[in-house]
Amino acid sequence: MSMKRAASSAVRAVASLGNSPVQARTLHASPGSKKIVGVFYNANEYASLNPNFLGCVENSLGIRQWLESQGHQYIVTPDKEGPECELEKHIPDLHVLITTPFHPAYVTAERIKKAKNLQLLLTAGIGSDHIDLKAAADAGLTVAEVTGSNVVSVAEDELMRILILVRNFLPGYHQVINGEWNVAAIAHRAYDLEGKTVGTVGAGRIGRLLLQRLKPFNCNLLYHDRLKIDPELESQIGAKYEEDLDAMLPKCDVIVINTPLTEKTKGLFNKEKIAKLKKGVLIVNNARGAIMDTQAVVDACNSGHIAGYSGDVWYPQPAPKDHPWRYMPNQAMTPHISGTTIDAQLRYSAGVEDMLRRYFKGEDFPAQNYIVKDGELAPQYR
Questions:
Q1: Which residue among the candidates 161, 288, 323, 358 is catalytic per the annotation?
Q2: Annotation says 52 is catalytic
Q3: Which one-letter DSSP state was computed for residue 292?
Q4: CB atoms < 10 A from the CB of 118, how many?
Q5: What is the DSSP letter of 367?
Q6: Is the peptide bond before 329 cis (omega within 30 degrees of 0)?
Q7: Which residues of 244-264 are buried (b: 16+ CB within 10 A; e: fewer)?
Q8: Is-contact 40 101, C-beta < 8 A?
Q9: Rounded to whole angstroms, what are the CA distances from 173 to 108, 181, 329?
Q10: Catalytic residue of the set 59, 119, 150, 258
């Protein structure tokens, strides 16, 4: 998409979502101070340990000085839940809301209705499902994220989790810190990755990169997606396209979830779907927790049908202390960290700043960053 400079008095565009006309809120920033709110996690004592630790409240994506020097108001908070939270106080008059998948501010239809001045919702990272995208589209809002900012980070993390599960690493680690030594308790369920069948559900940027990373391990690689990978790349990787998800799943020793959370994928892996998986399957999910039926995963881990489950995504986030995934057997879960390495933070902070600069100038964003534009959702969310 070519970059277009908006006229000084931008025209309110009429777009459509489905068959319903949508009045798009002008994205061009009118003159004067804008109220920009960022929702991030507190880093506390860790904030000062690395000058590039930008994705926290204390360091605020590294854009505070620039925004305030331009006369804008920049408010940052970790407090995002409930009617009395700090975010709720600013909903009625903010112009831009920035949040992350790692400490998501859930932008509901109710909040959108209250936000009379809101024009722009930015995700510092990838994955904007914490926003009610249909409500945003109906309200004429623009939703954008920093596409590609943490692709390498997540794909590398997925590869690590596959190896952790296949090699039964965590019980060995726990033995060491508990002063134990029992090789048999680890070795009876430790395997090589070579020769195993690994399937990714979703083969977008992260899924494709994971397949490329897996090629040297000499696995049998399968993928399911709404679109096929470029034939030349598919040939280089040696991955096989599986059009029918239900036909692919029983073939896999390892399943990796790389699909966005949409109405179609929410709760996709329920009791019935999991029953179709190979007994002893290993699952890695760094996509979104709500793609899985929470209790169905717990039950399958308890029965051994799922031999290991690892990921960094939960629903809701942060995960409550009583979330059952914390206590199920053979899990290798972490907080949502895969896409927020220091390298990724530098990329998504720079991407947010770039889009804000374009917003102030009335310029379009890079086309691939749009999740909702002119009342229309990006294809992956339809």
A1: 288
A2: no
A3: B
A4: 25
A5: G
A6: no
A7: eeeebbeebbbbbbbbbbbee
A8: no
A9: 41, 10, 15
A10: 150
Diameter of the chain measured on Cα atoms: 73
DSSP H/E element including 257: strand 254-257
What region does 185 belong to: left with phi over 0, alpha with psi -120 to 50, or beta? alpha
Is the pTM above the cut of 0.85? yes
Sheet with strand 197-201: strands edge to edge: 239-241, 220-224, 197-201, 254-257, 281-285, 306-311, 331-333
Question: Nearest CA to 245 among 263, 271, 265?
Answer: 265
Distances (CA, A) of 182 to 104, 171, 192: 41, 10, 20
Q: Is 213 a catalytic residue?
A: no
Distance of alpha carbon 221 from alpha carbon 228, whole angstroms: 14
Task: Provide the CB-side half-sphere exposure for 180 (13 A, CA).
Answer: 11
DSSP character at residue 14: E
The 8-class DSSP code of residue 56 comes to B
Question: Does the active-site annotation cover 174?
Answer: no
59 is catalytic: no
Q: In terms of Cα–Cα distance, which of 353, 358, 381, 362 is closest to 98?
A: 353
Q: Please list, in sequence order, all residues whose beta carbon lies within 8 angstroms of the beta carbon of residue 176, skipping any fewer than 6 positions away.
A: none
Strands 239-241 and 306-311: unpaired
Q: Give the number of other CB atoms < 10 A from CB of residue 139.
A: 20
Per the listing, tokens 């305030």 go with: 68
The residue from 72, 336, 347, 358 that is catalytic is 336
pLDDT of the chain along its 382 residues, tens only? 333 333 333 333 333 333 344 445 556 666 689 999 999 999 999 999 999 999 999 999 999 999 999 999 999 999 999 999 999 999 999 999 999 999 999 999 999 999 999 999 999 999 999 999 999 999 999 999 999 999 999 999 999 999 999 999 999 999 999 999 999 999 999 999 999 999 999 999 999 999 999 999 999 999 999 999 999 999 999 999 999 999 999 999 999 999 999 999 999 999 999 999 999 999 999 999 999 999 999 999 999 999 999 999 999 999 999 999 999 999 999 999 999 999 999 999 999 999 999 999 999 999 999 999 999 999 888 7
